[in-house]
Amino acid sequence: MSGAALAARFLFFNFQFLILGLTMLTFPNAKINLGLNITEKRPDGYHNLETIFYPIPIEDALEINPLHDGDGKYCLHQAGIEIAGEAENNLVVKAYKLLDELFDLPPVDIHLFKRIPSGAGLGGGSADAAFMLKLLNEKFNLGLSLDKLEEHAARLGADCAFFIRNAPTYAEGIGNIFSPVSLSLKGYQLWLVKPDIFVSTRDAFSQIKPRRPQRSLKETIQLPVKEWREYMMNDFEESVFPQFPAIGEIKEEMYRQGAVYASMSGSGSSVYGLFAADAVLPDIDFGKKAFSYKGRLNV
Ligand SMILES: C[C@](O)(CO)[C@H](O)COP(=O)(O)OP(=O)(O)OC[C@H]1O[C@@H](n2ccc(N)nc2=O)[C@H](O)[C@@H]1O
Ligand SMILES: Nc1ncnc2c1ncn2[C@@H]1O[C@H](COP(=O)(O)OP(=O)(O)OP(=O)(O)O)[C@@H](O)[C@H]1O
Q1: Is the distance from the beta carbon of residue 90 to the nearest atom of ligand 2 less than 6 Å?
Q2: Residue 265 three-state SS
Q3: What is the pLDDT along the chain (299 residues), one digit of tens a residue?
């Protein structure tokens, strides 16, 4: 069965339950990084950075139902893109366990349909974890505030807390200290390509020589989008592109096709281009196993 057909069946199944009020369904979305400056290495081995997280409409689907069979506390069913590893290492399960320790939650049956590619710099796992926290908070009336949810999310991954509010955000620290940014790219077309290359975030950080940019990203982001190309960098590109030239070539292709701005997202391997609302985006083959998305930004 094709991915689209599977997704349709999955969603139809859930829609029936949604109407009956028996289930809760949510759509964790990915993010891109607009600019990414790695500013210093910390004594704990992590890096301080500054970036702007921007939500994009590439989505997983995540639902929870009451679990009646067996005596476990959770059961995870997965469909769509495969994720390596055991269920207990899945971030949605980690999110459930985190709140279960605090609230002794009822057992849940979890369905996760993955569309967001992993190892892409799109924060797909972090999004699932954050949306799971929000879903459990709502379904079981836990009364957690957004600040508290962010605090819990930060324990699950560096950029997980962003997905609680899920709005354009300037992030500093290890990617966990937030301030809102006044920025809307609504109407721009987004073309995102993730080649069949897995970049380890840990390895990517280990190859970086941290430095402070001449001007803060907070200022750069206020420039017109067509000027970003000259002033806004993703520091990971300098080490990732020489190691994986195919990733850098995708960025060049985006500019050849008329992107107003193009960049790698996070530590890669996905690359996105922002295009004018009326631009015509061609079909380009980036390899059989490449993931490609074309759509419009809606925030
Ligand atoms: C690069 C970004 O995608 C930018 O959005 C994120 O900062 C990465 O966030 P993430 O994938 O959630 O990262 P984590 O899973 O928490 O960390 C993976 C590894 O990256 C390194 N790491 C991560 C974040 C950070 N600020 N400094 C680091 O040095 C650490 O070695 C860590 O063990
Ligand atoms: N629900 C989940 N979805 C995706 N990956 C998960 C999930 N739970 C655990 N993982 C693990 O997390 C790893 C990172 O996945 P993720 O989708 O967050 O990609 P990423 O591109 O590294 O994101 P980031 O932007 O945070 O760097 C995967 O290799 C996978 O083993």
Answers
A1: yes
A2: coil
A3: 455 555 555 554 455 445 444 569 999 999 999 999 999 999 999 999 999 999 999 999 999 999 987 779 999 999 999 998 899 999 999 999 999 999 999 999 999 999 999 989 999 999 999 999 999 999 999 999 999 999 999 999 878 999 999 999 999 999 989 999 999 999 999 999 999 999 988 899 999 999 999 889 999 999 999 999 999 999 999 999 999 999 999 999 999 999 999 999 999 999 999 999 999 999 999 998 999 999 999 88
Please identify which of the residues 60, 128, 159, 235 carries the catalytic annotation. 159
Q: Which two tokens stand for residue 277?
A: 């609302």
Predicted local confidence at residue 17, as pLDDT: 46
Counting ligand 1 atoms within 8 A of each CB, the residue from 201, 208, 263 with the most, and so the one to mutate, is: 201
- How many whole angstroms from 134 Cα to the centroid of ligand 1? 22
Determine the Cα–Cα distance for residues 253 and 181; give it in Å rounded to an integer: 29
Q: Do the Cβ atoms of 50 and 97 come closer than 8 Å?
A: no
Residues forming a β-bridge with 66: 108
**Per-residue pLDDT tens for 105-121?**
999 999 999 999 998 99
Domains delineated in the chain: 3-180 (3.30.230.10), 189-296 (3.30.70.890)
Reply yes or no on whether 294 is catalytic: no
Nearest residue by C-alpha to atom 18 in ligand 2: 125
- CB-based contact 237:278 (threshold 8 Å): no
- Rounded Cα distance, 106 and 120, in Å: 34
Euclidean distance between CA atoms 104 and 76, whole angstroms = 18
Tokens representing residue 197 in the block: 């290359």
The answer to whether the complex's ipTM is over 0.85 is: yes
Q: Which of 246, 244, 258, 155 is nearest to 193 (CA)?
A: 246
Is 285 a residue of the active site? no
Closest atom of ligand 2 to 121 CA is 25
